[in-house]
Design goal:
With 320 residues, the chain is an alpha+beta fold. It has helices at residues 15-30, 39-42, 45-57, 100-117, 132-140, 174-189, 202-211, 264-278, 293-302, and strands spanning 6-9, 60-65, 68-74, 76-80, 83-88, 93-95, 122-128, 144-153, 165-168, 213-219, 222-231, 246-248, 253-255, 283-289, 304-313.
Length: 320
């Protein structure tokens, strides 16, 4: 095996092989877990479409060794929370196993040199959660955990018996839900999360109640938590969700801190699972920030992590 690896600008002729490398890697890391969406093990259309666009945008590089492509890296550039950023999704990179230790650092070195030269200092990747080797490589380069995407089968049995009353919300509950969502924004902005969540108007909340399935929990007459479920209309190659997949998204889920640890979260989730099972929805997706200490512990009990997003911030004065 020739150890020399060449990094070059990706061409359309590389896309077929690159998509095959990605699927092979995903199959390796998802094998044996029924909670992982199997759709991506046999469908490469969305991956190829993504790579075609990245090649056109000039946002893709490839690695070659022994006269063949062995890996690639493709990304999006955008403004994230007021900062110019790049994001390499899970379908935006893959390397043949035998070359992973050498090719990944070279791909990032080449890409990061270009990013920083354009004053892009916020770098984000999403990787297979079980790829401990790549995780170590990125951690050694200064990346840290940021977000997890996880899936569960909705036929899982959840035995929960909290003392709370839970019901599916109606349009008349807009004010109640609005109050809880506003409180959740304060929670996300607090330490150690420091996340600025979008604000919602009463009209926005009413629209969510119309389009989604919100379950609200009460302690007697006091609202203490909620969970929101929508259903995907198409497959999404960024978070690997599939069509007709349950999605705990947008306003997500929230429980007042003083009511956590009393099986309320499990009871809310049980209502969501029951709804999905009754409506032929086999999989459900959730994403959560790793800095959300309560969520990080809770969701992993019932969901299988598939993807891990990591983030690195370069010193802002490097180009001074």
């Amino acid at each position: 095996m020739n150890n020399k690896i060449l990094i070059y600008k990706m061409n359309e002729s590389d896309i077929e092989q690159s998509a095959g490398i990605w699927q092979s890697c995903f199959n390796d890391y998802s094998s044996g877990n029924e909670s992982f969406p199997s759709y991506w093990t046999h469908s490469s259309t969305e991956i190829k479409d993504f790579l075609i666009q990245k090649v056109k945008d000039g946002c893709a590089i490839a690695a070659e060794a022994d006269g063949k492509i062995i890996g690639y890296l493709a990304y999006d550039a955008f403004n994230f929370n007021g900062e110019e950023s790049v994001f390499c999704p899970s379908i935006g990179h893959a390397v043949i196993d035998d070359y992973a230790d050498k090719a990944y650092p070279l791909l990032y070195q080449a890409a990061a040199k270009d990013w920083v030269s354009r004053n892009i200092f916020n770098h984000m990747w999403t990787i297979n959660y079980n790829d401990t080797r790549l995780k170590k490589t990125l951690y050694d380069l200064g990346f840290g955990s940021y977000l997890i995407d996880a899936f569960a089968r909705t036929d899982a049995k959840l035995d929960a018996a909290s003392s709370y009353q839970i019901r599916k919300a109606s349009a008349n509950d807009a004010e109640i839900l609005y109050s809880l969502v506003e409180e959740s924004r304060e929670y996300y902005a607090s330490s150690p999360l420091f996340l600025k969540r979008d604000s919602y108007s009463i009209d926005d909340i009413s629209q969510i109640l119309t389009n989604g399935n919100v379950f609200i929990a009460f302690d007697n007459t006091i609202q203490v938590g909620f969970i929101n479920l929508s259903v995907s209309q198409e497959s999404n190659c960024i978070d690997l969700s599939v069509k007709n997949c349950g999605m705990i998204d947008e306003i997500g889920a929230y429980i007042k801190p003083e009511h956590r640890g009393n099986n309320l979260g499990k009871d809310l989730l049980k209502n969501v699972f029951n709804y999905c099972a009754s409506n032929n929805i086999e999989l459900i997706h959730v994403d959560f920030e790793t800095a959300n200490l309560f969520a990080n512990k809770f969701w992993k009990k019932y969901f299988s992590p598939v993807l891990l997003s990591v983030r690195r911030t370069i010193n802002k004065n490097i180009n001074d």
